[in-house]
Design brief:
Blueprint lengths: L8 E4 L4 E5 L1 H6 L4 H16 L4 H11 L4 H12 L10
Antiparallel strand pairs: 1-2
Helix pairs in contact: 2-3
């Protein structure tokens, strides 16, 4: 794995890339539907909108409601030494 894999996601393919939020695993861990939806909203901005990562972080910070999950994701991305895996091609 050359790039970091952000929290709460599924990764697949070669090269490794984002393929969705691991909603089943999150439900098993006790996350609510609202928390999972918030996580999906963050990753929608990060991976699906046509923005570079720094722009996507700013957009997510401003437009997605505050939550512990959002903070965890954005902190992980900001602190990533190798960058994060690429999005859907």
């Amino acid at each position: 794995v050359r790039k970091n894999v952000p929290p709460y996601v599924k990764a697949a393919r070669e090269p490794l890339s984002y393929c969705g939020v691991n909603a089943i695993g999150l439900r098993r861990r006790g996350f609510t539907d609202a928390q999972i939806s918030n996580i999906e909203d963050v990753y929608r901005v990060i991976y699906i909108m046509n923005s570079n990562i720094s722009q996507a972080i700013k957009i997510a910070d401003l437009e997605i409601p505050n939550s512990n999950e959002k903070d965890t994701i954005l902190k992980f991305i900001r602190n990533s030494d190798k960058g994060i895996m690429r999005g859907i091609s």
